[in-house]
């Protein structure tokens, strides 16, 4: 939380979990007529679940997941968390022998990464880094929990040509994968990336096992082969987010993830409308996924602004202000900070990043979007009482 933040109104405000920067904030609520809502983490849970890994022809699904996870475990993004959690939940050793075509030569590097560069996993204090491979696989057989999806454990023994079929039918990992206890018992380790760079709103970049790896928006990774283009289009049509994985200048796989709308978001949107505000959805995610979420919570399709780069979120707010609107914005991410500061009234989710909280005028401590409407209603009522 920000040091300048103060809890206004020991009564109602505190009860509601509203943190206000200063009394002058109240004034900003008066004329607000438009409320811009960030999608991921604000309207949705911001907890992504891995749905599928689709390798390009000739690529290995688990190798692609390994490279992606190795890079993403340096990132805090919800997509990154979904990828690393799924990787860790798989039994170790899966990354060998699952190439889509038998024609490709085995990569000598494939298994090496697991034995030479195992990091100590801070969350469990494991010391696999020094363990010889034999010990690692032994540990795996004893402590890897059975994957909830039946049949997945057999994946390594299936012929290569079945790999693609498996990839397209990989079910979403269930909740236990995210839970602490199961994470503590999954010993699958990740090599640490070198030269890691977070390309805000685009993806991540770094060197894993000597390869320059990219994970992120498909256009970041470059031109995709047709089978991956199809995978991206299918995922987006289903309202999902698709990221591409590439290394050495070539796109290798598409990873699809899904988020869920918070159960309170639709009510929150209707409460905001009741205050006379027009809700607008703003996101760096793709149009189709954004429209799906908008429909679910009751935001008009023409009020969806998608595919927005972090630097452009602030411009989206400026454009609305240029139309003569008085704009409130609710967000949670580092990528929302500038837009929150630009808005006439910035509201941060208390469950979000410090950057967002510091840029905002007001924090919704519990991260409940319904409180945005409560806060504005309370502020307006307080103003009426003061004046
Ligand atoms: P939002 O505006 O919904 O909070 P972001 O601006 O954080 O979304 O991300 C926009 C897009 O950038 C994502 O949908 C994804 O395609 C890509 N992206 C950002 N960070 C990552 C990452 N760590 N790994 C993969 N893709 C990423
Ligand atoms: Mg967000």
Keywords:
387 residues, Rossmann fold, Calcium-transporting ATPase, cytoplasmic domain N, 7-stranded mixed beta sheet, 17 helices, elongated, disordered N terminus, binds adenosine-5'-diphosphate, binds magnesium ion
Tell me, rounded to a whole number, the average pLDDT: 77
Q: What is the count of DSSP helices, taking H or I runs of 4+ residues?
A: 17
Q: List unreliable stretches of 5+ residues.
A: 1-10, 94-98, 102-186
- Total strands: the figure is 13
User: How many structural domains are formed by the residues?
Assistant: 2
Architecture (CATH level 2) name of the largest domain:
3-Layer(aba) Sandwich
Ligands: adenosine-5'-diphosphate, magnesium ion
CATH superfamily of the largest domain: Calcium-transporting ATPase, cytoplasmic domain N
CATH fold-level assignment of the largest domain: Calcium-transporting ATPase, cytoplasmic domain N
Distance linking N and C termini = 30 Å
Strand order of the largest sheet: 1-13-12-11-2-9-10
Structural class: alpha/beta
Q: Mind describing the biggest β-sheet?
A: 7 strands, mixed
Instruction: Kindly estimate the percentage of residues that lie in beta strands according to DSSP.
Output: 15-25%
- Identify the overall geometry: elongated
Approximate helicity band: 25-40%
CATH class of the largest domain: Alpha Beta
> What order do the SSEs take from the amino end to the carboxyl end, as H and E?
HEHEHEHHHHHHEEEHHEEHEHEHEHEHEH
Organism: Acrocarpospora macrocephala
Family: Belongs to the cation transport ATPase (P-type) (TC 3.A.3) family. Type IB subfamily.
Region (Disordered): 100-158, 170-194
Protein name: Cation-transporting P-type ATPase B
């Amino acid at each position: 939380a920000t040091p300048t933040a103060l809890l206004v109104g020991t009564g109602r405000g505190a009860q509601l979990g509203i943190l206000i920067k200063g009394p002058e904030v109240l004034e900003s609520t008066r004329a607000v007529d438009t409320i811009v809502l960030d999608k991921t983490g604000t309207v949705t849970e911001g907890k992504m679940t891995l749905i599928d890994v689709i390798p390009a022809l000739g690529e290995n699904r688990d190798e692609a997941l390994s490279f992606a996870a190795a890079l993403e475990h340096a990132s805090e993004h919800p997509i990154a968390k979904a990828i690393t959690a799924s990787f860790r939940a798989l039994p170790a050793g899966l990354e060998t022998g699952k190439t889509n075509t038998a024609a490709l030569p085995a990569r000598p590097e494939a298994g090496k990464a697991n034995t030479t560069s195992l990091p100590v996993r801070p969350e469990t204090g494991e010391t696999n880094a020094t363990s010889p491979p034999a010990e690692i696989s032994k540990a795996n057989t004893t402590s890897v929990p059975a994957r909830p999806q039946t049949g997945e454990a057999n994946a390594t023994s299936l012929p290569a040509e079945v790999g693609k079929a498996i990839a397209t039918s990989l079910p979403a990992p269930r909740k236990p994968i995210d839970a602490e206890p199961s994470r503590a018992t999954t010993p699958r380790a990740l090599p640490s990336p070198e030269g890691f760079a977070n390309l805000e709103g685009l993806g991540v970049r770094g060197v894993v096992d000597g390869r320059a790896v990219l994970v992120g928006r498909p256009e970041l990774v470059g031109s995709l082969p047709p089978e991956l283009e199809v995978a991206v289009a299918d995922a987006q049509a289903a309202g999902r987010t698709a990221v591409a994985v590439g290394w050495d200048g070539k796109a290798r796989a598409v990873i699809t993830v899904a988020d869920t709308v918070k159960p309170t978001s639709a009510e929150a949107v209707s409460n905001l409308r009741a205050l006379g505000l027009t809700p607008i959805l703003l996101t760096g995610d793709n149009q189709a996924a954004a429209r799906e979420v908008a429909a679910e919570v009751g935001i008009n399709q023409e009020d969806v602004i998608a595919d927005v780069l972090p630097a452009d979120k602030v411009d989206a707010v400026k454009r609305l202000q240029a139309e003569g609107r008085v704009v409130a914005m609710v967000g949670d991410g580092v990528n929302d900070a500038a837009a929150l500061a630009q808005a006439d009234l910035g509201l941060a989710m208390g469950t979000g990043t410090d950057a967002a909280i510091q840029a905002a005028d007001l924090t919704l401590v519990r991260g409940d979007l319904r409180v945005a409407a409560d806060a504005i209603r309370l502020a307006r009522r307080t103003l009426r009482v003061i004046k």
